[in-house]
């Protein structure tokens, strides 16, 4: 039949004449204009619209239906199937109903039949049933027929496209009901970033984590391909669709068919190592086979696993070729090479690199991990372990470091770093850490991951009876029992090699009770027999007059582990004063910054170096006093600034104190005299003598102890009949020749502050009590403008005698101009401070302890409540209002006690900073020691008032001229450069310490000092079972036994925290022949078991806060020493260079004859078996490499042959011109245009019916490529990927895949 005749018969539009081209007119036009995925509803609507336009009666509609049926009949009759042709399998019932169902139009027929339903011919997995078990018969139709039917009726489900293939048994061309499923794997590397960082993996859920969901464990992708397709088609499909590398030449790719007993567990990404060694059978597809069909080469099972490999861009070599070549050459030198690999610094990871190098070069550790023995002893279920991840990471690192095939000089430990960071927050970042802490953690982690004890038994720690403490045999039995108990719970290669025993002895100082226990250790920490000292220079102010000078300085020497109590005891002994007379304050800018008395309990738990820093200015005051009757009041000194334009006053000197007895608190004259005496400490001038000279210079001077009213002629007063030298209460201690303000004015404030941070703690029902302090000091500098003249508190009748030298000598109650200006002037904000006209800051907070004892402020408020006599409800309202952030009113209500002619305002430092004066109920009154208004003595409370009390702060406001005469020159001051007290003991100790630092310390001295008994500190007490109390027992630790690998930690860093202090002294240690026998408490140990040789040193260079770690290691493979500085490795010619001040960790190995392995008989047997198995596997690997090399050689030979015959192989042209059929197949080929063929090859949805791409873990699986759950296999090697394939006969038409 000619093409013209075929066109005329098969074209539905030809039957319609000129009524419109509704349907396509040819097979080619159908494939171009429509696909099986076109919307059937949409296309039906188009047909219906056309019919409305061109058909107007039932006769024409019926004729249209008959024409359509005739077209389908004609197309079905022309179907002549050949091998390789594609078809669509549809329900036979549908095509029969299409021809037999009575209908008047295509619309009526469509409403009767409905869409073509593919669900009726497939099972639950979307695959065809076997022919003999079909619930609904099927029929194969051409793409042309299917396009017409789907265009008219629509489709339900996924159309099933299949190819025709020749049955080798019958020779009949049949439908290939089940194409081959190819599981696609790829040669590649695991991603650098571990999956637990991408999936939130943590130690706590690792036992339940599904590792199959991790990217490096992804299952393979699946491709369904007809057996009639070529290997080249399969390779191109994988390259373009899966790898998305369509631009690369196909010559860069090759295909491996693989099979293994565990092939269903293979991930998508397979490393070169696993590919070569873990997969048993591998067949490489040679170039001359690529153009052949799969069936022609026997690829006829339901599933195959294939591995795609492509050339690396770096060297344009296949990775398998590179790996095999390097391994074949490396296996010959396996025993000679290795051990010189450096480790890259990832960022402050030198601490890790140095410790790893030392551990990697321990021969037994190296053999245990390099021979893969550790894999058999992994304990992944240990709750104290890390799921075996740390051991696996360490093993991988060791094998890479000793890999003879590696040609590089260094490697990156990034994967290992990620693993340990996953389980330890300390090592997760990139901060500098301590190498010893890392080594200790790593040994513990490896032990738990490799612990041979799966279920640890409960063991009670044995005790030694009191009558056996002197029995050496009983002690030895106790040690053996403790060791056996430890081994019952802890048994690993780490325990075999590193673990030793301590003997700990505690003796009660009272009853003599002796406790002996044994504890395991993996590294021996030795303190260096050199005491690191703490030095500080203090200023001493002596009010006891025991020292030559009032102000002097002294340098103190203490151990770095000393606390505040040790400092007080040292000063007490050196100054020869009682502890109760010593007061320490930190001074800053002439104010008190810290009060060490306030937190004395807390200070006991802090090292003195943390409490007092090098730059701190600490003043020690020696103040003799009676705690029952005396009040100690702080004193500050100020003077007007030399620049008078600013009208500012500045503090000077150091804070001072005066001590007043109970009966002196109301004596203005006594206070004046005490201030005169104490400020004389600040100058070299005899201040008291100068005042006497000023008095005597008066021509009418008469010396008296007490003056009477008649001695004040300028004052118009009446005589009171007092005799000469008799005390007059009005005159008091006033002097008629010197005014009370001469030289300096005495001012005061009451320092009773409540910090805002403590306001919320006030509770009227609280039972808390304020802590009592001997001296109340302000931890800030109150504004000078807030001070008031102390003389203004005096009654007018008494005040006029103290100020008799003022012009006119009047009784008028007037305030001095200075005070008026300071109190009445306006205020303004400047730089965050409330500033008066004098530009003096109102409050200058100084202290770190400023709010530590807030209850003292509460106490002062409580005192005011009692004085002012307010009720509890009134007090509550007053306090609530006073604690608001708004500024208080300038004037507070007067107290109901009229103390003086001045009001009580301004007793707090600053209205902008302090709460206003307020009242609290008596129920909250914890103490009255700080009350600004009451007497400081309980028996006088509410009955008398005094000029000063414990809350008072005094200020000496100096006249500028007199200040210049007394303090204007540094030569006149005593606080700037005070004389130094000679501390002979300190001088000798410094000299001794320096001599010790310059000399060498031997390791033997360190070992001897290790067992020196020591008395426990007050914070480290031991509970004595006999005394039933905690005691400062005498403790000594001795070494009972040592491990075969002895790790010695030289304790160069002194405090508990790393890098707090370092000792750089050289410790002289032996390179060979360390004899531990003299230092072991076990008398039964033999001398031959106590000789050790050095194998590694972990060095630390630098000082406090950081530095750099390196390692000096002996390589057991060539018996040479090497210096590992991160990635740089150099040989050490002279091992004596190892002895330096940088040596931090020493690794010693017990000496054994003939290089016998260590760790005991059990470990030796394990290592021996592991080595034999490793050598046997090495032989197998060599055979695998040899076979693989042969396959690779054949591949390249075939490639060279094809290139020599035909030039470069143009596989693209093969794909564009059509598939090459098997040489034995008959019939003419279909010539498919290149665009059409390319469209079919690159189709994701399998438009040509031959391929479908999906992933085992993906939702993108297609129904036409999903295998049934009960698919049969012909052999055990071709099982379903999920492992649940049942038996079914394998043939080209009968075999199903999952």
Automatic annotation (TrEMBL):
First-level EC class: hydrolase
Leader sequence residues: none
Keyword set, alphabetical order: Hydrolase, Protease, Thiol protease, Ubl conjugation pathway
Residues covered by the USP domain: 341-1151
Stored PROSITE patterns: USP_1 (PS00972), USP_2 (PS00973), USP_3 (PS50235)
Family as reported in the entry's similarity comment: Belongs to the peptidase C19 family.
Protein name: ubiquitinyl hydrolase 1
